[in-house]
Design a protein that fits this description.
There is one protein chain. The chain is an alpha/beta fold. It has a single domain, classed as Rossmann fold, CATH 3.40.50.1820. Helix content is 46%, strand content 17%. It is built from 10 helices and 8 strands. It is globular and about 45 Å long. The N terminus and C terminus are likely disordered.
Length: 290
Amino acid sequence: MKLIRTTTILSAVLFLAACGGDQNQEQKKQTFEELGDQAEFREKHDEPREMEAEGSLGEMIQIKVEGQAAANAYAIMNEESKNYVLVFHEWWGLNDYVKEESDHWHQQLDGANMIALDLYDGKVATTRESAQQYMQSADQERIMSIIQGALAMIPADARIGTIGWCFGGGWSLKGAIAAGERAEACVMYYGMPVEDVEELKKLEADVLFIYGKQDKWINEEVANKFAENMKQTDEDVIIKGFDADHAFANPTQERYNEAAAKEANAIALNFLKGELLSDDDEMEEEGDED
């Protein structure tokens, strides 16, 4: 009986492998960087439209990186706020859209300090081909060193949030993990989550994961797996799916979905305010009572 049972199980495994093996390989493949090899994925990204020039609230700064060349960042600093948000750009690089987003979130989050990291060391893509090249050639260790450099310049008693889109969505999560106990909130717009549960267990921040239901890659399956993995951590994850495609929140893209973007941004704002600013509100209420 034992031999028969073993043989039956083995046959079933082989059958499933034959029927679904290729599909499983397809599902596993992918770091976000590897998606760049797919023509369909590249074509989902329209070359960014130019944005109307507006007065910037921040300025370019340099971040010290231990043992390496300094890194660049677009920063809006406010000495009166102990809230900091690390901003992670899409696969295009630190372009005007990301700087404008940093300005917007600074205003919406009561003057929080914003640091938009340049993960490409000065390179900004204007074509799909250059975006693919920059994303795939970006040194992962260099990016982590840039994040650590940014964290080192943030005061020890600061509350830190992260936000990112596309390529930067995944780095928003990695940045929150790197921030350790100072991390309060992480927002990911259609980014590839970390799958290593042991890495996720290092997370000290709640996560908001936003994706488009029409997205072939960062889809419901990815969201559900991330939710299951997060159950093994001490932090909460909020999953929000919208009837929209990849990059739906970026107004420089043809697939921009204004209604979905507004709703997603409102949810993200409430989430960040709740995680970052709630202590400020409590302090103000205590001050009023005095």
